[in-house]
Each structure stands twice: as C-alpha cells, then as structure tokens.
C-alpha cells in the first residue's frame, strides 16, 4: 500500500510515520510545509491511502487568515488532486472544536465539508475523525497542548498558570491514536462515521496535581506507583520533557 502523510513533520505526523515504518511494510510518502503541492500530481495515481494531518490550530491574533489558508484552502487543493484517483482512501484529522464557532473550529468544519464533497462527488472513501487533545513525548510546549506545557514547565521548575481549574480535558495518548490509525488502514468498511478510541477525561487542576506528583517522585528517587494506563502514559510523557529543547 502506498500511503501519503500530510503534515508529516508535525507531532502526530512524526508519530504515525514512525508507526508505519516500524509496524508495516507500506510505502510512505510525505507532504509538509516545505513540499510543492503540484508534485503530488506525479504520485496521485499510485496512492492508496492518505492521512491528512496538515493544519494549523493556533495563530497570532493578527494572522487569523492562516486558518483559512491552511485548514481550508490547502484541504481544498489537496482534495482537488485526490479526486483524480477515486481509489484513494482519505482520513482527515479534524478536531472536537469543529463543533464550535471560533475561527479555528469554523475552519476545521469547512475542511470537513470539502472532504465530504470528495466522497459525495467523486466516490472516494473518506473518514473524518474529530480528535480531542493528543499528548505524548515530542508535543510542542507553550503552543496548543496544556499537557505538553504543564509537563515542560513542571519538569524544568517553571511556574504554571491555571485559568480554568475545573475545566474537563479530553485526552488521547499519541501512541494509542497511531495504533488506531494503523488499524483503519485495513478496515473493510472504511467510511465516514468511525468511532474514535476511548479517551480519558480529567480536570485541569487534577492534571496539574498529577504531574506535580511525578516531579516529586523523580526528585525523591522513588519508584513510581501508577494505577492506570493513563497515569503510565502521562508519566512517560512527563519524563521526556526533563531535557526537552
């Protein structure tokens, strides 16, 4: 199978590339911000599956147009190329925020509509997943992930700021997401409405306290006692930020 990953240098993109190389024998093609979109015309008829992960989820207040430029227009231009080969299966990584009316959510919802059109007009099989927060080693701190930001700051003895302590975060570990993505490569009824794997809900203050407890464990050189898979995944994530640059 020939697989294209857009946003291949992003957090999820880097991880799914690693999984494809490690656990499959598929051929991998990459598309990122340094790529020339017209070059995809050279391989479009060879492609079997596309993980469309490219997008922006945070911009400066004076650069809101980037949401439309990347999330909407890039998706439109990609789908125009993909429509030449109706055998391409497309997985679009949307966001839970697509149900909201903020600039980011609106752009993701418009991108979803473009992907729906690829299915309805050209017959491509399309799966749209509205993802919650994704965490794991390598996620950029001080950007859009509260987990990455908390882990980085606490690991490096910096003060964190908690604004909405009772806000509930829905989180998925990136390794679990990649395992789910790999399963979708060979699913027989690949299509639009696919259930996402089980996520974990936690309040912002509880998340901060849990990460602080990891810091205390490391400082005391004790062996961590972790009671759930989420805690184990979060602990592994936290330790990766000790020497993060």
Describe the structure.
With about 240 residues, this protein is α/β, with parallel strands linked by helices. The chain has 2 domains: about 1-130, NAD(P)-binding Rossmann-like Domain (Rossmann fold, 3-Layer(aba) Sandwich), CATH 3.40.50; about 130-170 and about 195-245, NAD(P)-binding Rossmann-like Domain (Rossmann fold). Helices cover about 40% and strands about 15% of the residues. It contains 7 helices and 8 strands. The protein has helices at about 10-25, 65-80, 105-120, 145-155, 175-185, 205-220, 230-240, and strands at about 1-5, 25-30, 50, 90-95, 125-130, 135, 170-175, 200-205. The chain has a 5-stranded parallel sheet, sandwiched between helices. Helix 1 (about 10-25) crosses helix 5, helix 2 (about 65-80) runs parallel beside helix 3 (about 105-120) and helix 4 (about 145-155) runs parallel beside helix 6.
Number of domains: 2
What's the gyration radius in Å?
Answer: 19 Å
Q: What do the pLDDT scores average to?
A: 93
Distance between the termini: 35 Å
Which geometry do the CA atoms define?
globular
The helix content, as a percent range, equals 40-55%
């Amino acid at each position: 199978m020939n697989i294209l990953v857009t946003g291949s240098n992003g957090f999820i993109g880097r991880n799914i590339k690693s999984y494809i190389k490690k656990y499959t024998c598929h051929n991998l093609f990459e598309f990122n911000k340094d790529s020339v979109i017209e070059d995809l015309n050279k391989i479009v008829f060879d492609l079997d599956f596309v993980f469309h992960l490219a997008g922006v989820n945070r911009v400066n207040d004076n650069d809101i147009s980037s949401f439309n430029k990347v999330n909407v227009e890039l998706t439109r231009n990609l789908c125009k190329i993909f429509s030449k080969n109706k055998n391409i299966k497309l997985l679009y990584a949307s966001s839970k925020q697509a149900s909201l009316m903020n600039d980011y959510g609106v752009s993701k919802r418009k991108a979803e509509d473009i992907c729906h059109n690829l299915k309805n007009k050209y017959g491509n099989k399309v799966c749209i997943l509205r993802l919650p927060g994704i965490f794991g080693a390598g996620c950029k701190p001080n950007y859009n992930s509260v987990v990455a930001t908390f882990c980085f700051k606490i690991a490096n003895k910096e003060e964190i700021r908690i604004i909405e302590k009772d806000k509930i975060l829905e989180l998925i570990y990136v390794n679990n997401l990649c395992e789910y993505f790999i399963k979708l490569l060979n699913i027989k009824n690949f299509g639009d409405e696919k259930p996402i794997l089980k996520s974990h809900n936690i309040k912002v203050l509880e998340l901060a306290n849990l990460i602080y407890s990891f810091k205390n464990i490391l400082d005391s050189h004790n062996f961590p006692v972790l009671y759930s898979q989420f805690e184990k995944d979060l602990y592994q994530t936290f330790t990766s930020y000790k020497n993060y640059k």
